[in-house]
Amino acid sequence: MSTYAANADAPRQMRAAVVGEDGSISSASVPIPVCGPHEVLLRVDACGLCGSDLHARRGGRWARGLIPGHEIAGRIESLGESVGKGGDGQALTSGLAVVVEPLESCSRCRACQAGRDSICPDLRIAGVHRPGGFAEFVVVPAKRVFAVDPSIDPAIATLVEPLAVALHALDRAEFRSGERVLVLGGGTIGLLCAFAARTSGASEVVIRARYAHQRQLALDLGMARPHDAALSISQDGLESRFDLVIETVGGSNETLIEACQAANPGARVVVLGIFDRDPPFDPSLALQKEIGLSWGNCYQTGTMGDPDFARAARGLAEHRDSLGPLVTHRATLEGVDEAFDLAGNKAKGVGKLVVLVSDQREERLR
Ligand SMILES: [Zn+2]
Ligand SMILES: [Zn+2]
Q1: What confidence tens digit (pLDDT) does each residue in 218-276 have?
Q2: What angle do CA 181, 187, 191 make, to 5 degrees?
Q3: Which of 130, 144, 157, 160 is the most buried (most CB within 10 A)?
């Protein structure tokens, strides 16, 4: 029995951006999803377009009929009959402004029991394995919903997801305040990692970005003198200087080698980039310096009652004005396919592109 069925006035169809036969995405009318007892139905306000989405579309990895989008901000439309609290322990009510931790895991395996749900073998992600946020409505598990200050622009609120990735990366690398941190890559994840390191007490944060607009965004975010990634690590004067290096580039780039060059002896490197097969690596250098190598995937709920997503939601609320410049482009649901082309073209100067779904501003101000 769905809560939706009880609401006879609700529209039964919604607009959504759906993956077609040829891998392109177009707007379609599809049934509004129905929430189960432990789920909530959200009215989506905004959904960010992520680098991993660009990868998936380019690689033709999405199933036909999928509704992509995992950086979701919206409001609770209706609740399943057994829903009580969200992921942060706050009582969920209709109309509450929320963001979505887009994971669904088995909750029984050792990883899940340890609060490390992002490495659950049965991990499913909204917008990848199940319907996501490029739609007027989306159904998600209630425990994956986190309240946000309703006065935050929903386009900015979608940044909670990549900020949670950044906070998780610092944890994975066992970051300690006072350390010197290098971030490789000036995309949203790289910029947010740099921002998170700086606001978490790093003594120095250097970001290396390939594109001029990324370096400008780093400045807009208050970072000191971003470096041009076209220089080699030694030309750039960065050899053996950092306690922690965060790699966010991936592909077939030489950033694993660069990370080890820039790392101090005994330093740690945490990898967030999505690499192609066999990226260049120098194991001898990593051995000489005894570099600790770790990896960060998504975010975790943890077992201490303060999930990465909850920390990110608080961080975003605190730094909403500083982080605002990251959202450089806004698109509509009907324009999602063109938005992908725009975001995928590095010459176009896109920082974060967010798809605005509902006319939330009017309704919020009502
Ligand atoms: Zn993402
Ligand atoms: Zn599991």
Answers
A1: 999 999 889 999 999 999 999 999 999 999 999 999 999 999 999 999 999 999 999 98
A2: 40
A3: 160
